Amino acid sequence: DVFPLDRTQQTDADGDWVGDNPNSDRADACPNAWGDSQYDRLGCPDTDSDGYSDPTPGWPSTTDCFGADAFPDDPTQWCDEDNDGFGSNPEGNQADACPNNPGSSTIDRIGCSDRDGDGYSNAGDPFPDDATQWSDRDGDNRGDNASGNNPDAFPDDTSQWKDSDGDGYGDNPGGNNGDAFPSDSTQWSDEDGDGYGDNTDGNLGDLCPLDYGESQAELSRGCPDSDLDGVTDPLDAFPSDPFQWADSDGDGFGDNTNVPSGDDCVDVFGKSFEEGRHGCPDADLDGYADVDDLFPEDQEQWADFDGDGWGDNYLWENTTVADEENTGMFLTLREQRGDAFPEIASQWSDLDGDGWGDNQSSSNRVDNFPLRASQWNDFDADGFGDNAVSGSYQPDACPKVPGTSTANDEFGCPDSDNDGVSDDADPCPWDPEVSQGSRSTAKCSITSDPNLKSNDGGDSSSLLSGESGTLQVMAGIIIFLLALIVVAQVARAAGKRKAVAAKRDDQLANASVAEEEERRQAWIQHYLAEGNYAEARALGWEGTEGLPEWKQYEMEQQAAQDAAIPTMMDLENL
User: Fold this and answer.
1) What is the pLDDT of residues 14-26, one digit of tens each?
2) Where are the domains of the chain?
3) What is the DSSP track for 473-516?
């Protein structure tokens, strides 16, 4: 008896100290195989010695944990309640974290559901349906696995997740270390926001990284360039002009001569701008370059079309002067500058502004009355103008016949007795003492032309009774006397015209002298303003400013000596 103390057992075929009697409550479930299992069944092989028998064809493991050892080689596990291959013993190897729910997870938790089969349980996998991603440390919904789908290039930065160009700066420009150039690995920052990267060694580097600029030029890229001409504003002499950028001579005209406004004298300062010539010397600053200006020292003149020496820019100011022919009356004349007739070489002055020239020696548009705006022509040369329009000055009532009449506003008609009344209106045309009344009532002391009387004292009646030879002689004498009368009339008209012309010449001369004096004084004031006292003295200025003190003292002493010399009046009073 192998079991002398156990009346229910006697034999032990396999020698495992578990009796072979199957009717005993401690019968050997594997009587022919040595074993030391003791929990699910007795006396069966138990490879891992955990008390649970190794499964056999008739005795498998079960989910209720009453069967064979589900893990025959693992002494820490024996039961798999959900049959997922992971033991239910929480303290054993690879304990099933979800013992009642089959699962294949092996990394975060063992034996839990893992839909995408990446080893991470669904509950612990932020991406339960993506086998390539399972972790998201920064919680931005991008996986931490760099080689997986939609990987997070910045797994610990919630504001960044992608780096398209691989430069280490995130594509999200608003995130931490955002890349302003996500497609350019050589650029990432744009401090001034002008679209050019701050890395000057990278592609299209910004040469002015702290100053916003739109220049695309290689030497000024990203710098301020208002006119987009490729030159930065601080270096651009014309920051608002895309066609100009340099001004070598500093005159305000650009050196680029390929445009109309370019400087035609690049290396010489100048202010000219007329006639298509810009930036060249212009001494009088009238806009015309000195080389084009016929009057380079006169700001008001520059051209002389007719070549008469008077500039074409005609300017004038009206001035009032006394009318010497009419006491108490005044004339409006012009103070002129320039040529009143720019296309007529022989005329340049028009004092009265009537459009007719004052130069009497010209043959073109000569004004016979240069001081009378309403008169210019005098066909019969009697000194009275031919313009008879109402309001004109002393219009010639007989423009085709020379005359000296002036009375009753009838000018320029024959006046034989020189009493001012024309012969046609004079009741006694040969009597200067009678000029009013009618011819039928007037008593004329002289009733015939005194120039027609004979030299021998006879009257005209005796001529009628003479012989025919005498008549012929007297007829010749009469013709001769009539000729003398006409000559006298013409001479008288010519004399008056000459007197008028002389007076006009005097007025012109006086006006010219006054104009010259005014111009001299203006130049004196100009030189004094500049401190150029030498030039002012050359024009007659007698001031002492600018002279050495010894010279001023010498002049004062000389003036005192001159004042001490007695005059003729002083000598007469002695």
Assistant:
1) 999 999 999 998 9
2) 485-543, 545-574
3) HHHHHHHHHHHHHHHHHHHHHHHHHHHHHHHHHHHHHHHHHHHH
